[in-house]
Structure formats: structure tokens, C-alpha cells
Amino acid sequence: MRHSRTICATLVVLLHSLPRSGLFGQTAADTSGLLKVHLDMRGVVSQGKRLRMGGASLGWEWGVKRDEVTLGYYWTGKRGRRDISGLSEMPFAYPPAVTEADIRFASAGYWLTIANRKRWKLSTPLEAGAGRARFSPEPGGTPESEPVRRLRLFPLQVAVYGEWKATRWLGTGIQAGYRYYLTGEGNVLKPLNGPYYRFRLLVYMQTFFDWRNHLFRGEPLPSPFYPKSP
């Protein structure tokens, strides 16, 4: 796990040190702002198992380099809670029952663009968040008097991200990096720290503008495969 953190940090530092023009053949871009809607599926690899989380975020992209800031919300959900219950060395265990865990947090990020081409984009997101974790015994496993444990958490994430601008309206992205949870009770969430990945489906606001202009202003509806970048 220590090697994973070192590799991720080294790669991000190298990408940040590269010039953001010339090396990747950066193309000219519109400097106006662009609002994005992201539907996310995140996962952490811990103890050789996949821990899944769902989420969504809004992003604002601007400038020639198309840097981006995001604000999102993420949660474990039913599948994620089941994934966490299969881990060993989790805090606040309630043997013989399997501990049920629920994690939720909001996260803000800054995405430094390394390369922005007509159809793809490469960036290095740095994210920090705040939320809470709740650990409780599964029903019927322990006496009902067993306390429910809650703690505040602050996830820190660093990664490399690639985006494919499939059409004017939609795009996809994939991200890989490292997530670390800070808490007020020491390193109790150590089993949840580790390499993480994320898949994104992006809905560009150009979708809204194209359909608005078509339905309410009588303008022709452009093809989503029109060569102009969103």
C-alpha cells in the first residue's frame, strides 16, 4: 500500500511539473465557462477487494487550459456497505455479527489540465472532502443495546484523470489515484485507505442549450457528432 501512495504521488508531481502547452500539442480552446454534470461510480481496492461508492458532482470548466473545479457528494449505498462488511480489521467490530458501515461525504476538487485536445483531456485532480461514517451491528447479530459508533471523516484524494469527449452532449472519463481518510480518532479507517478508481458519465451543458434553442427558439437541432468541441 505504501508503494501505491508513492507511485501516485510521484506521477502527479511529474505531471504538474510538465509545461501545459507545447508538449502535448495543446489546441486553442474557448475561454468561456462551461457547466458540467458528472455521474460517478468510485471504487477503492482494499485487502484485494473492491469497495464501491456512488456519487454525483457539478463541475465548472473555464479558461484556455480548461481547468475545472468540482463539488460532489458520495455514498456507499447498499452494495458498498456489503463490500465494507467483508473486510477484516474494521473498527468497531461486533462479533459474531458482521458490522454494517455507512460512509457519506462531500468533496471539492481542483482539476489542473495537463492536455486538452479536441476529443480528449488529461488532468490531475486534487480533492478534499468532509463527511461522516456510521458503524452499527447488523440486526439480530448482537444485543440491541450495542452502541452505534459515528465519526467524522475527511477524505483526501490525488489522481490522474483522462476524459474522452465522445459527442457535443456526452463524454466519459476514467480516473485512478489514491484516497486517504483522516478522522478525529486516529487511523481507524486504515482498511479503507488505498488506490481508488472512478468512472464518469459526463453530460455537457451544450445538450441543454442545443435542445432549448431547438424547442423554444426554432433553431435547427445540431447533430451531437458535429465536429465543434462542446
In a few lines, what is going on in this structure?
This protein is an alpha+beta fold.
Distance between the termini: 39 Å
Radius of gyration: 21 Å
Spatial order of the strands forming the largest sheet: 1-2-3-4-5-6-7-8
The percent range for strand residues is over 45%
Structure description:
By secondary structure, this protein is of the alpha+beta class. The chain has one domain (2-18, 42-216): Porin (Beta Barrel), CATH 2.40.160. It has 3 helices and 8 strands. The protein has helices spanning 2-17, 77-85, 206-216, and strands spanning 34-46, 49-62, 67-75, 99-116, 120-137, 149-164, 170-183, 194-204. The protein has an 8-stranded antiparallel barrel with strand order 1-2-3-4-5-6-7-8.
Annotate the secondary structure layout.
Elements: H1 2-17, E1 34-46, E2 49-62, E3 67-75, H2 77-85, E4 99-116, E5 120-137, E6 149-164, E7 170-183, E8 194-204, H3 206-216
Antiparallel strand pairs: 1-2, 1-8, 2-3, 3-4, 4-5, 5-6, 6-7, 7-8
Structure characteristics:
single chain; 230 residues; alpha+beta; Porin; eight-stranded antiparallel barrel; 49% strand; elongated; disordered N terminus
